[in-house]
Design goal:
Elements lengths: L6 E6 L1 E2 L2 E2 L4 E9 L3 H7 L1 H5 L11 H12 L8 E5 L1 E6 L2 E6 L5 E12 L5 E12 L1
Antiparallel strand pairs: 1-7, 2-3, 4-5, 4-8, 6-7, 8-9
């Protein structure tokens, strides 16, 4: 999936195979604030000076990860933020979630749904999934 284009996730809340409606659904994504290529360009000099152990591949991403670990917890050179999505109910218990992508990277989607349980009480579900944006 290319950055700049939205992606859609479908969510279905069901109990014993039957859709359950009448509840609420909340979803968001933990997304990169800076792309890997932007961070590599910004920290090129610092990463070039890092000595990596011999069992680590000497690739720019490994050096960037090493610099990030060195700087944490004071500064995160690969910051992330949470972004909402557009939710549309398509049928009872079924939803389409649309997320917009600004930067390439891993988008970690979290979906939480709550609805009346068919046998009383509440039916709650939480799901996580990762979408790679290039």
């Amino acid at each position: 999936m290319p950055a700049g284009e939205p992606f859609t996730v479908r969510a279905r809340l069901a109990y014993e195979g039957n859709p359950v409606g009448g509840g609420g659904l909340v979803a968001n994504a933990d997304v990169p604030s800076v792309s890997t290529s932007e961070a590599l360009a910004r920290y090129d000099r610092e990463t070039a000076q890092l000595a990596l152990s011999e069992d680590v591949l000497n690739v720019p991403e490994a050096r960037l990860t090493a610099l990030r670990q060195k700087r944490l917890p004071l500064i995160d050179i690969l910051p992330r933020h949470t972004t909402p999505c557009t939710v549309r109910e398509t049928e009872v218990g079924e939803h389409e979630l649309t997320f917009h992508t600004d930067k390439p990277g891993e988008y970690v989607v979290r979906v939480e749904a709550v609805a009346p349980h068919p046998r009383g009480g509440e039916l709650m579900r939480t799901r996580l999934l990762t979408v790679t944006v290039r």
